[in-house]
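Following up on my earlier thread - several people asked me to post the actual chain instead of describing it. Fair enough. Here it is, all 323 residues.
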Amino acid sequence: MNLATDASIPQEEMDSLLLELKQQLRERYPDGKYLRAFHPKMHGLLQAYLDVRTDLPSELESILFTPGKRYEALVRLSNGSRTVASDRKKDLRGFAIKIIGVPGIKVLEGKKNAVTQDLLLANYPSFPPGTFKGTVKGILATSGGLLKKIFFALTHLRTVWRALQSAKHCENLLNETYFSQVPYHYEEQVVKYVLRPKSLAPSCEAKDKDNFLKERLQENLRKSEVQFELCLQKREANDPIHNAAIEWKGPLVVIATLTLLSQEFDTPARRTLGENLSFTPWHTLHDHRPAGDIGIARKKIYEIMSAFRHHDQAVPEPTNFNC
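Reply from S.P.:
Thanks for posting it. Predicted structure:
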């Protein structure tokens, strides 16, 4: 099965997208201190453990998911908007996991011997543009003038509707369910990932109305650890691989538990690390690489934009969650 390499990504469209994203960062951060092109607002970088089920079914065992295996992890929670804005605004929320202690050779050059692997999720089950071509059209249109935006909206009503649905109010990041949105290889299978809370966390009163998600995260994690179930969503016959706008209907299987430790995370060192670390879906073992149209495109997008943001200065991958 070679589903991760059977999508063709047009070079001209890729070049146009990268040129636009770089120009946006130059205009947004004229001092050259670039934040991420997407998900720039970080709520926190958290220490966690990922514990693989001891009774994981044998057909789901892999180098990464070995029954009973415990990994350290770093988790970055964020807002999805391209600009840093108030938490009161409707938005997509991101949940990026860097698993630490993963054996084996990784895909990306320069990180092949790293002991980390990334998994990126967001709190909406599908990817509204659906395809790489749809993503390019959307970003270029929304970066243009009013007439260009109106024309795009009128000619892409379904995409705009899905994008509006994906941006929603959030009261507590710990009570959201997060989705990989796009498919991944799982050795000989193709799957999606879902991360769901095992129980609901209380939402305390926040003083800073523009940054209340961080305040509530701090308050909850001062008091106790918080657990999520990491699930596989198996692909059914009609679930598409190359159109990520369509939700899959396959069943969920719990494969691991993610435990966010009780902690004080809002420190200068943790904030700096959270801003400097790169998270990319292609920092992975080959058997768990992304599949499909969007997955293919993300390899070059993340790699080039990360290098641009860091001014080509590579940031070392962590070897434990205390670094």
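Residues 11-28 form the longest helix (18 residues). That should answer part of your original question.
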